[in-house]
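Trying the structure run again after the queue cleared.
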Amino acid sequence: MKQSLLALTIASIFAAGAANAATVMKADNGDFLKIYGGAEVGGFLVSDKDKSPKAKKTTYVDKSFMTIGAKGQTEDVYFKFELDADRNDYSASNEMNLVIDKAYVGYEISKNQSVEFGRTDTAYDHYDGFGDFANELSAGVSEAGDQDDTLKYRAQFGDFKVGISHSLAGMDDKVTDRLDNAVTNGYVGYFTKAYTVLGGAEVVKDGGKIYSLHTEVNLGEFAVGGFVSSSAQQLKANDKMTYVASAKYAMTDKLTLLATMNMVDAETDSKDAKWVVIGGEYKYAKNIKLAAELAQGEVLKGGDTGTTGFAKVYYWF
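Done. Tokens:
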């Protein structure tokens, strides 16, 4: 599924070294303890056609989000603890969900190999949206997100990256990207500066299976990507093929334009969908970004997109 852009942004920024968390402790041998976090403020413009008595009759849905966490390392052992607060303004109760999103310990087998155990992202979740440059309004892969009792292995061998995880249990029932049953998933990808090809798969006990193939091609200021995903559920009526083609163009160092075409070919015709997303991102600073998108098309036969707009400001440290 479409992960929180903030979570993905924080991870990529830390990996690139473009922003630093607040350092609480740092030893001469490299051991450290850091605090990190961020917020995304904004939401969605939606159609006012929902007749559910639990739904809030509004054209704007606030989906603001905040995260704060701590991470540290002692020799080859590291840990992470993270709290997430997610506002769900679409319901009449205007509720705020607060969850422990991550709580795990890891061990670095070598420079490019590690294992983790605890409440953490499944392996597949790291690359579920790879090839899709849109922020929120495009289609996604509905694999398991953070899961309890997860054992995960990730490694890089030259230009190849691999990952596999097995989760014994799901998480809080209010968080929609967690699954109740045991989950095994993983990925393998070939990464270069010019292009990347990656495949992912997931099997859920007494559930379904998901397979996807992703790609990105970088052509300087212009890049194209996309993915195709096959989802087979216990109920055949929920089986579907998802196709996403995406492109982005860096007009300046700060401004990037985005466009994505989406199609869902479902076993049940009434769940077929086709729509286009256009948008842009503006990097106000190295740790502040503004994003906006518009979706246009037929999500359900005889209907409209439901969600028509998206805008948020992202801040992280």
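The first strand starts at residue 22 and ends at 26. Worth checking whether this holds up in the mutant runs.
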